[in-house]
Amino acid sequence: MRDVCVIGLGLIGGSLLRAAARTGRTAWGATLSEVDADAASRAGYDVTTDVEAALHRAAEQDALVVLAVPLTAVEDTLRQVAQHAAHCLLTDVVSVKAPVLDAVRRRTPYARYVGGHPMAGTAESGWLAGDATLFDDAAWVVGVEEDTDLTAWAEVARLVLDLGAHVVPLHAESHDEAVARVSHLPHLFAAILATIGAQGGPLAMSLAAGSYTDGTRVAGSNPALVKAMTEGNREALLPIVDEALGRLGAARGSLASTGGLAATINAGYEGTQTLAACRDVERAGVRVSLTAPDAREGLVALGERGGRVTGIDADTAVGEVS
Amino acid sequence: MRDVCVIGLGLIGGSLLRAAARTGRTAWGATLSEVDADAASRAGYDVTTDVEAALHRAAEQDALVVLAVPLTAVEDTLRQVAQHAAHCLLTDVVSVKAPVLDAVRRRTPYARYVGGHPMAGTAESGWLAGDATLFDDAAWVVGVEEDTDLTAWAEVARLVLDLGAHVVPLHAESHDEAVARVSHLPHLFAAILATIGAQGGPLAMSLAAGSYTDGTRVAGSNPALVKAMTEGNREALLPIVDEALGRLGAARGSLASTGGLAATINAGYEGTQTLAACRDVERAGVRVSLTAPDAREGLVALGERGGRVTGIDADTAVGEVS
Fold it and tell me: Which InterPro entries does the entry mention (chains A, B) (predicted)?
């Protein structure tokens, strides 16, 4: 099993280092946060605040380097990768994919890069919030582009599977559009709800119950991380925000004119049934040979249909799709 | 302890009948749903599908009548109350208060009415979803108007306290404005999120994680009940929807122009801190004599400040406020 070098030890990077170490892999990490480095070292992990040293070791050991820094720190970290581990096998866990892919192509053109994004998290952040089981059964997007090296892809996918997650093969653009819908818009809505609720003062706060606490939970996330994630996905997020504005405006118009909200509420109810149906549906096994000429198309088709790769068997991705 | 007659045995009415029976009170219920009546009877509760008989018995026993029907059924049920228990002590658990107060004044002017609304619920509905512990530590608004009979108010508040909840004394208008913020807008946002997520197809559904499932949970509620509740609060809800449109539009404009979402995200984060602060704050004891000339003002002031009545001691409401 290939060694793993994790740069950035917040919630995701810290959980990844713990989970990777638990698989028996040699794994080390680096973080600029003295606090996180101290906490990780005290917990027995091999951690330094010297990012360059960690990358140098990765180059020597031909380790898989995982960028687990916020989007705003990606360019600087890639500069260090280019200097100290230019040819490494490289992945990341950043929550937007097209901007990272673009930065990698500019900054580290010789790295064997495969993008990644685990769909897991909590409203907490930092090393202490991490948990080796965070990725259990989670979807983890592993990027497939026209020029993706499928040997490198399989290495990253194997790590993801070892960490307990399922692999969703996708183009960067498909990922960014989907997370604008199911993650970034939910974060914006939560922020707006939390603002409007708080403006109701102590009375509104004293009446807040489940619909409010559920709807605002992710607004308690570290604002810097939410800002980096949503602003970094501007291109995909703008049309989704426009869709939300259109739907909210339509609800407003209907409430003001006829007094009816049936269209809004029924569509939402059907949406929840769609999610439930996607989760409950019987799934069929599917195999994609990674050495076939159309392997990339096969993987992406699987991801686009909501499928997941759950194993790698020699040169074949084994998965399921509805 | 006064007997309790519950009209409507869905999630809230069914939980209330269970919890009232557990306090040792004589309690009976009526529902037009044969299914719910059968299930409740089989569970050992005193339940009928004959609403008029249940109300007739309430008049004979001078019971406290609780309307636990959807807003759309309130007018019809009040007509039956006026016919069979015109002078009863009457409360309700409907999620808007000004429209119910208005209907009561028109339909049952001789009833001693005190409005109510428990801030508790789940996305489920119907008798089988009920639970005697649903109201434990929940806020339960008990209405105070200029003409509220404080003896009747204390009777309703005592029942609420016996059921395990805390009493929030409020004017109907204050209640309706606050729940537009912390309940009805969250329901609309959840519906819109669930619609936009589902439009992303199986791919978006396969990437949906905590921020999406939390943000859309209440969109899975019975659409008829959500429609009744939000449409019934039209007057208070419209300005809140306008506030949401303004904030979402501002976020859109900022993302499109400067690319920044800091104002939106920071305000949301501060909103979550406001809720946490309101819940963690040290509270001072407060007593409001129900026989004082300014008792109604004292109760409402307590509710408006986010306070709760936690006991009734002879003729004094005992509570806490921050």
Answer: 6-PGluconate_DH-like_C_sf, NAD(P)-bd_dom_sf, PDH_C, PDH_N, Preph/Arog_dehydrog, Prephen_DH
Pick from B100, B104, B139: nearest CA to B120: B139
CB contact under 8 A, B272 and A216: yes
Q: What confidence tens digit (pLDDT) does each residue in A194-212 have?
A: 999 999 999 999 999 999 9
Query: A121 to chain B: nearest residue by CA?
Result: B210
8 A C-beta contact, residue A47 and residue A8: no
Using DSSP, how many helices (H) and how many strands (E) does chain B show?
14, 12
CA distance linking residue A55 with residue A73, whole number of Å? 16
The ipTM is: 0.92
> How do residues A122-165 score in pLDDT, each as one tens digit?
778 899 999 999 999 999 999 999 999 999 999 999 999 999 99
**pLDDT score at A172:** 98
Tokens matching residue B303: 């509710």
- Sequence-separated (6 or more) residues with CB below 8 Å from residue A127: A9, A10, A14, A31, A33, A35, A36, A39, A40
Which pLDDT belongs to residue B123? Answer: 73
Task: Give buried/exposed letters for A5-39 (b at 16+ CB in 10 A, else e).
Answer: bbbbbbbbbbbbbbbbbebebebbbbbeeeebbeb
Torsions phi, psi of A165, nearest 5? -95, 175
Q: For B68-149, list the strands marked E by DSSP.
A: 89-92, 112-113, 116-118, 139-143
Please, are residues B195 and B215 in contact by the beta-carbon 8 Å criterion? no
Q: How many CB pairs under 8 A join A and B?
A: 367
**What number of other Cβ atoms are within 10 A of residue B2's Cβ?**
14
A187 CA: distance to closest CA in chain B (Å) = 7
How far apart (Å, rounded) are the C-alpha atoms in residues A112 and A5?
A: 15
Interchain contact, B183 vs A274, CB within 8 Å: no
Residues of chain A with C-beta less than 8 angstroms from the C-beta of B178: 200, 203-204, 207
- For the beta sheet containing B284-289, the strands, ordered from the edge strand earlier in sequence to the opposite edge, are B116-118, B139-143, B166-170, B308-313, B316-321, B284-289
Chain A partners within 8 Å of B274 (Cβ): 198, 205
**Burial, A286: exposed, middle or buried (Cβ in 10 Å; 0-12, 13-18, 19+)?**
middle
Contact B237 A255 (CB under 8 A): yes
d(CA A36, CA A253): 50
| A187's tokens | 């974060």
In angstroms, what separates the C-alpha of B187 from chain A's closest C-alpha?
7
Please tell me which of the candidates B122, B207, B259 has its beta carbon nearest to residue A168. Answer: B207
- Distance (Å, whole) CA B99 – CA B102: 5
Q: Check whether B121 has a pLDDT greater than 90.
A: no
Residue A148 · residue A170 · CB < 8 Å: no
Asked if the Cβ–Cβ distance from A203 to B306 is below 8 Å, we say: yes
State how far the Cα of B164 lies from the Cα of B20, in Å rounded to an integer: 10
Q: What is the DSSP string of B258-290?
A: T---HHHHHHHHHHHHHHHHHHHS--EEEEEET
In sequence order, the β-bridge partners of residue A5 are A28, A65
